[in-house]
Every structure is written in structure tokens, then in C-alpha cells.
Amino acid sequence: MQALYFDGKEPRYQEDYQKPQPKAGHSLIRVLMSAICNTDREVLRGYRPDFRGVLGHEFVGIVEESDRKELIGKRVVGELNEGCGHCIYCRSGREKHCPDRKVIGMEGLDGTFEEYFVLANHLIHVVPDSLPTEKAIYTEPLAAALEIPNQLHIRPEDNVAVIGDGRLALLITEVISLLGVDLTVIGKHPEKLKYFSKYAKIERNETDSYEVVIDATGSPGGIELARQIVRKKGTIVLKSTYAGSANIDLSYFVVNEITIVGSRCGPFRPALELLNKGLVELPEIELWKLAEYENAFASKAFKVGFDFR
Amino acid sequence: MQALYFDGKEPRYQEDYQKPQPKAGHSLIRVLMSAICNTDREVLRGYRPDFRGVLGHEFVGIVEESDRKELIGKRVVGELNEGCGHCIYCRSGREKHCPDRKVIGMEGLDGTFEEYFVLANHLIHVVPDSLPTEKAIYTEPLAAALEIPNQLHIRPEDNVAVIGDGRLALLITEVISLLGVDLTVIGKHPEKLKYFSKYAKIERNETDSYEVVIDATGSPGGIELARQIVRKKGTIVLKSTYAGSANIDLSYFVVNEITIVGSRCGPFRPALELLNKGLVELPEIELWKLAEYENAFASKAFKVGFDFR
């Protein structure tokens, strides 16, 4: 079968990759569509130097074999982190933080840029029939945005700023705008910001301050702007990962009692809920055949993926 | 009257300092006892370069004049930050973060190292008759420790580590131990740590990790140890202020979804409650006459103050 294999240096398209067999507690999934995440690009840049295997983790597929019989034939999405099942993190609802976890397309498990792959049953979520595959493909990144209200009580009365005007910032802005807050987006690219104007203010007074500031810039400068505009006793949510350290005056955060919340992957069920209810609008995914992976990775489209149908 | 005046360079003992007059909404307080806080030492080292006036902010006194008649004759303690009364912070329960606030002994207002001083009525808390002055003098630093459970929901089921074995660490350890948590203190000085053993474990396994880690070291190294021992999805509380910046790998906090909470001054009412109920034990304050201020500032005792009685 077709697969995009990462050999530690570069991706390699194969037509003869071996179809996997599901073990107990796992399902065999036929991939319908799989999308490129920024993390896949980071793996290619060396983010996971020890990983060898098939890339990809955002997918929609059909369960073909499973020991959870009710899943067979269902269209599904799935989470990427498979924990050990018995550590403090797995036992306290934090499986995605298990130190011995495997991660599809990143750590110890083949990913979703292939025709068939295997996933643990408890990580699988059934897609409602009314939700098209082209929309369900957004479940994983939308879940990452939903991790913010999952971690933090944002009140309708709060005012909130999102820093950044990229993909993640748009998903976050749409999710946060559903809370009824006074929402502002701060970005550098007028051509991107126009997509945000439906959900948030895209202009601000220099002196405005915010109870909650979400850094989705993906660069070390985000935290410094966040520090400047967050209210005392307010909260900064960090959604950006990047290589390297930032130099920070921690006493400022103590004296002004500011909370900093690191935020990563999030809950799938509410993401499917919002997508199925049409409460978030997302640009159409640009689709390629897996063999055209070089064009796909080079594309500047908002969302790019592979079509296996 | 006697006062210890800071002229921008050093403290100056005066016997002829003018007794103040309370304005509307304020009370004249006769000081019974006033304690030296680390912040007073920092003011002497240049922490508030523009301040000129009487030092000190931890006190127990008697209200002698007030337009809140029920306060007259009462033994009281008081908070230090007087806000403008109309900004977003003053209107949302965050008066101590008002950007235009005055602070006794630090910013725009004479402090408590003098026989009489003036304080806004709403900052005054009456001391229960059953609570001796020598214990009530601990209200302000104990309130700072209580700011931690005021900001953060610490569950009895959690395990918590306090890093540091100084004064603030002891107050924090005593307050947190009341929550029933599994509590460990991490310090460098065996002679200090012995005071903590009644409230917390003072030894730990290298591999132990904690849901909540409180940095009360007062040094930039605290956050790095906190980072190493806090659980993923856990919380670090920063109680340390110090000059200078720390170099921090913020991506670690994002990937592991760690929350960092800056924490400063806290609530007086619960501090008086704990003191009056005898739920915290504190070393006896070492007392000096105000004229002996040089000995007082040089003392290494746990708590040092001035006796005006």
C-alpha cells in the first residue's frame, strides 16, 4: 500500500509499504483523508530526531477491523497519544502527558500518511454522519484551540486578546468568540487579519489591556507583547512552541500576580460538536494525492492534505 | 514624635517628626508594634528609588481618631495599598494592583516606623481581643502566604512541594499544611529545615514529582528546580521577587501544559482567623526601641520589630 515514510532525513513515498495488522485493543483504519500539521513539517526539520516511520496524525478514516465491533464500518477521527496505561498521568486523565507514550507519526507508531494504519480503540471518536469528511479533518487542530477553555475559566464578561494571525490563531479566535467575550486579534498581516474581522476586533488602542491574552504567534516575541498588554492578576495562555529560550523578568509576573498557562493538544468530543453544529467556519482544505507530497508540503494554502478516496 | 525617615539614601531616626492629621475617610493610628519586612531592607537597597518618607508597613496599633467612629479605641492591623478608587483594578477587587496606588512606607505615604500614622479606613482590620499583639504582628506576612490558596484551588488529594527554607517558606508551609495535602519542603539549610519537619516532609526521592510547586527561594534558581519537579499539567507558584531576568525555555511549559502563577500580597481576614484560632505557630518576634534601628536591621532573628508600647 502507499505510505509516506520518514527515514530520519527526508520523507520517502513508497507504494509497497506493508499493510499493518491490528493487535488487541486496537483498530485497523482505512484512511480517507489526512492533513499536514505544522508538527509534520517540524519533524522534517528535526523536531523528532529518533523517529523513523510513516508521518501524519490528522485524519478521517473508516474502521475496517476492530475488537470493538460497534466501530467497524464507522467513519472516525482519532487522538494521537497512546499512553502506557498505568502511570500517574494515564491514571489521572493526562494520557497525552504519559512519559512513555507513543504518538502516531511522531514517536514509536506509524502515522496517517498511508492507506491503512492502526490506532488504540479508546483514542477513536466516531464522526457524525451529518459532518462531511472535509470538515471533520479539522477536528484535531480545533481540539487544540478548545484546550484553552478546557484549562481556563474564561468568563463572558472578560476581554481577551489573541496575538497572532496564522492558522492556529484563527481557530482559537473562532472558539473564543463563541464565549461572548470582548475579543481582539493582534496581528502583523492585514491580508490575513481580514479573515478575523468577523469574529474579533482587529484594531486596538495602544493603552488597552486584557484579562486574558493568548499567544499564538509561534515566536519568542509573543510573550513580551502579552506581558505588556495583560492586566494585573490576568492570565497569559501560551500556545506557541519554538526552539530556544526567552529571557524573562519573572519578578514582573510575581508583583503583578500574572498567571501563565501552557496549552497544547485538546479534547476531540467538543471539537466534533462545534464542527457538526456549524459553529466554526474553516477554509476548504487543499487536497493532493500522496505521491504529490512535495507539492503538498510546499503549498501555502491554509490547510493542505492528502486524499485517499 | 519618633520616626524612622528614609531620605533616599539611608534611614534617619528623628524625635521631632510631625504628628500627622487624618483626612476624611482615614484614621489616625497609634502604633503599638511594627515589624521589619524584607521589603523594608529592599527599600534601603534602592528598590523604591523615588520614595522619601517614614519606612515600615507591618504594624499593630490603636485607632485614636477616625470618621468611622466604631474604629476608635480598637486594636487594628491594616493593608498597605491605597488605590485611586475608580480604575478597573479598584473597581474589580484588585486595589493592590491599582497603577496609581499609594503604599505606606513605600510609595507616597508615610509608613509605620513612627508613633502615629494615617491609614485609609477601608484598609483597617480589627484584631480580636483574644489575639496578642505579638501574634497579630504576623498578619501581613501570613496574608501573603494565604494568597496562594486564594488564587489557586489546591485539593487535599494533591501533593505539593515548597522550595525554600526561609521565613516566607515557613509561613507558606504552615498554611498549606492545613489543607491536608502531601507536603514536602526542599531547602539547603538543615538547621532551618528542622523547623519545617512538623508540617512537611523534609526529605524527598530524586524522582518524586508534584502537582503544585511553590518557589519561595527568593532566587532565580528556584524556577528551574520547580520546572524539573512539577508534574505535567501541574502548577508552579512564584512567590520570589528578585532583581534581574531568568532565561526560560517556554516551550517546555507549553508542551507539558504547566501553569505558572505569580503571587504577592494576600487577604488579611483569613490571616487573622488562622492566628486567632492558633492554627499557625510562629517564632517570637525580637523587639527593639525605634532608636535602636541599626541593631534591629542587623539582627538575624526570624522576625524583628519595634516596640512603641
Give an overview of the whole structure:
Two copies of one chain form a homodimer. Chain A is of the alpha/beta class. Chain A contains nine helices and 19 strands. The first copy, chain A, has helices spanning 38-44, 133-136, 139-151, 167-177, 190-193, 221-229, 250-255, 268-276, 293-298, and strands at 3-6, 11-14, 26-35, 53-54, 58-66, 75-78, 81-82, 102-104, 108-109, 116-120, 124-126, 159-163, 182-186, 210-215, 230-238, 246-248, 259-262, 286-288, 304-307. The longest helix of chain A is centred in the middle third of the chain and has 13 residues, at 139-151. The first copy, chain A, is globular. Chain A binds chain B through residues 88-89, 94, 97, 147, 151, 209, 220, 223, 231-233, 238-251, 253-264, and chain B through 88-89, 94, 97, 147, 151, 209, 220, 223, 231-233, 238-264.
Could you name the CATH class of the largest domain in chain A?
Answer: Alpha Beta
Number of helical segments with 4 or more residues of chain A: 9
Distance between the termini of chain A: 14 Å
Largest interface: A-B, 38 and 39 residues
What are the key terms here?
homodimer, 309 residues, alpha/beta, Quinone Oxidoreductase, Chain A, domain 1, Rossmann fold, five-stranded parallel beta sheet, 9 helices
Task: Describe the secondary structure blueprint for this structure.
The structure is a homodimer of 309-residue chains.
Chain A: E1 3-6, E2 11-14, E3 26-35, H1 38-44, E4 53-54, E5 58-66, E6 75-78, E7 81-82, E8 102-104, E9 108-109, E10 116-120, E11 124-126, H2 133-136, H3 139-151, E12 159-163, H4 167-177, E13 182-186, H5 190-193, E14 210-215, H6 221-229, E15 230-238, E16 246-248, H7 250-255, E17 259-262, H8 268-276, E18 286-288, H9 293-298, E19 304-307
Parallel strand pairs in A: 12-13, 12-14, 14-15, 15-17, 18-19
Antiparallel strand pairs in A: 1-2, 1-4, 3-5, 3-10, 3-19, 5-6, 6-11, 7-8
